[in-house]
């Protein structure tokens, strides 16, 4: 095992966990390179809003020296959940925001931009798709790129999400479909263009649920509301329905039939979006997902513990990144550092995976309660 004072570290994936790891390493004077398959930071939209928990995401931002800048961008008022009756849209329960603003919301894109801006220029190598990794007999790991080139590192960190190209070096596990699909749409300038919807959603998130289907809407920055039509259905549900998922009018008509009997103010989410419909089948890794330590390679975030998107994944990915970086700084030996990190991360992820599965069942009930 290579135990040089400043090991060569590569992070595959410029998501929140990988960028947090890179930032904490650089704060401690360590060099690191992040490889990202996307062509640039703005190659695609980054998704909705995230609530940052004090003991996970915010703790990682504190370790990264970015907590004050985070609070300047975050929306503490967004930590609110309104649960409505699906038939009448009457308010059933309201939770948050917490008095201490303990789980402020921030758009994922803003958070990623904050982390990217904190890194030394040139840390992220864009348009560098990794095809596979090969652990080597000397304890190092070889990164193979899509263009046929390769580079060797003392440690390769797989932070490359659900369909990780690094994971097979450690585990044969593959994500499987949860039985739930999110169909996403969006509303712009809601306070002026969609004022009734804005009042329905409030400052944070709104949920209305029936058996096997739910509607979720969440405030984002700049007056945008992102809505999710959550369905318990086969992954190829559109084939059985005889519709093209890219045909906005056909999808809309099908959804309106599925939500027949729901209050008309909630059905507004199905018929009045300013964008088309994006289909997101939800996948998870088996739980527990563990592996035997392999020198020169490890995982964090969704690459290690893909879970349903119910508020834990981004927070855990960032805490993973921070914990791994601190272990690498504290230990002179890379292998010892990775073992220390994995001994904390793996048990934590098992507990979180169980909680996330329960959260998805609560969000989209399979049976009447």
Automatic annotation (TrEMBL):
Family under the similarity heading: Belongs to the aromatic-ring hydroxylase family. TetX subfamily.
Keyword NADP (UniProt): yes
Originating organism: Kitasatospora paracochleata
Cofactor(s) for this UniProt protein: FAD
Uppermost EC category: oxidoreductase
Sequence positions that bind NADPH: 44
Domain FAD-binding: start-end pairs: 9-192, 297-331
Protein task: An FAD-requiring monooxygenase active on some tetracycline antibiotic derivatives, which leads to their inactivation. Hydroxylates carbon 11a of tetracycline and some analogs.
UniProt keyword Nucleotide-binding, yes or no: yes
Cited InterPro entries: FAD-bd, FAD/NAD-bd_sf, TetX_monooxygenase
Pfam families per record: FAD_binding_3
Compartment list: Cytoplasm
Note on domains (UniProt): Consists of an N-terminal FAD-binding domain with a Rossman fold and a C-terminal substrate-binding domain.
Protein name: Flavin-dependent monooxygenase
EC number: 1.14.13.-
Subunit organization: Monomer.
